[in-house]
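Chapter review: from sequence to fold.
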Amino acid sequence: MSKVYIGIDIGKHGAIASIFPDGKIIVEKMPMIKTELDYSSIPGALNQVGYQSYVVFEKLGVIFGSSKQTAFSMGEQSGAVEMSCICQSIPYTKVRAVDWQKQMFQGIDQITKSSKTGKKQVRDTKAMALMAIKRIFPELKLTFGDRSTVPHDGLIDAVLMAEYARRNNL
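The token string follows.
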């Protein structure tokens, strides 16, 4: 059975990206009901009929400056994705952001921005991810909907994580 690689950017503004053996990419926003994640929709997004799914999502760590509520919500979402995989016997990997970014950002010059305090320069991973996805998938639409013009960060990260899994034959 052919394998489909599924990358998930955890978060209410996240996304789920599937890369199929023929190179076709399908991306959807994280399923929501108003302002809450629709946990009942996650299993269906992970089970691609006729393919063996392999899921990759970020191993969460401390996000500097985030609230306790945000940290709890992200942990809850990560757990929901993990349990969906376990219940459906779908293999998965939790990968540190620094690990998938290291591989996907190869050949891209370092882009920096001012830190939140403004006292030092930090790596701008969002800008670097945008550069990487445009280089790897130049034809991919990076927005949801017909009117949007701003690339969707969740879409970009989800596709890059799925590509990381594909390249590493996870």
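Two observations follow directly from the output. Helices lie at 42-46, 68-87, 97-104, 125-136, 153-167. The chain has a mean pLDDT of 91.
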